[in-house]
Design brief:
Its main location: endoplasmic reticulum. By secondary structure, the chain is mostly helical. Helix content is 71%, strand content 0%. It contains eight helices and no strands. It is elongated, with a radius of gyration of 20 Å. The termini are far apart. The relative contact order is 0.12.
Length: 229
Amino acid sequence: MQTWSLVSLCVLLGLAARWGVSLNSYSGAGKTPMFGDYEAQRHWQEVTYNLPVQEWYFNTTKNDLNYWGLDYPPLTAYHSLICAFVAKTINPEWVELHKSRGYESPAHKLFMRATVLVADLLIYIPAVVLYCLYLTEGSSKKKVSTLLCFLLYPGLILVDYGHFQYPLCTSAFLLFIYSDIIIVICLLPSLKVSISLTLVLILIDYIKKCILYKLYCLVSFKAHTIVRV
């Protein structure tokens, strides 16, 4: 019981730190014409909501890839789509095609910050708790200390809640997959090879696509710049 009380306290401290950082500004605020990564995340919601899946990654009259073109794998795109459905319900102007470019308001900032916090609560924090309490060795005090370090790590908090992205989701998937592999090996030895291999392949595929999409976009941009020159 005492351990879980400390865990709850760690989670509350982590949430407080996150929300405290989110009260400040974000990268690119008010800076035309691109507005920074905050606008990139908002724009991806706009694109995924208004365009069919087959047009998400292609340059068309409705999807200008030079303006924060979607350059992350489909898993990220579907996350943007889920956020877009919520945004559309609250205020359709937030994801209105083309007309919402550069949209900034206190209400929208609150919504965008909330999407990161909800992702943390549903994905990252459970993954960290699972890993620290059940898959690390040592005393309860050491496990709680490790949990606190995870939840208060400034790098991810500043990127997610200051600069504005969702890297904590990827970190959570890594922890979940690692945790699943350990659990399978310990509890289900007869299935450990097939299930563990499947999970590892999913992880490798996701990371590979992240890297390939980034490289493709970089090479395409460089080639386009050279051609124009």
